[in-house]
Specification:
Layout lengths: L6 H5 L7 H15 L25 H15 L2 H19 L2 E6 L4 E3 L4 E5 L5 E5 H5 L4 E4 L5 E5 L8
Parallel strand pairs: 1-6
Antiparallel strand pairs: 2-3, 3-4, 4-5, 5-6
Helix pairs in contact: 2-3
Amino acid sequence: MVEHFTHYQYLRVAPTAEYYAIKRAYQQRILETHPDKHSQRTAHTSALPDANEPFAEPHADLFNKVRLAWHILQSTDRRKAYDAYLKDLEARTHGIIHDEVGLDEMDYDSDAEEYLYPCRCGGDYMLSRQDLALGADVAQCTTCSLRVVVEYQVELDDP
């Protein structure tokens, strides 16, 4: 599977970061990733990302991606367009959250051990007891891409 990373990740900033924080991060990252700097560095310097970061790329590629990230995020208009693109990508990837529903509003099918709630498309939002036990709080429609957040409280047994 090909991983896709955001310009924010390449600059190591949050999507809510202010302009000056992004600029400062860009200046630091461009120095860290500049290909000319890596002939003197070892693979264990802070210029390279740690194991939790998405950069197993040659330095020149990473340097260019950092430059592109700054190009997009430095402009208010380009950043707004990019943020809209990310929001659209998130919705297409994970479906749109349509509503919030209480677990008590859902119908329980005891045979299948599932909670069901009708979707506007004619399908049903479905959440199994096993999903609930694992802490799930989003139910996907069985027919379309819409999702609902299911609100419920976990009741703990007293010892």
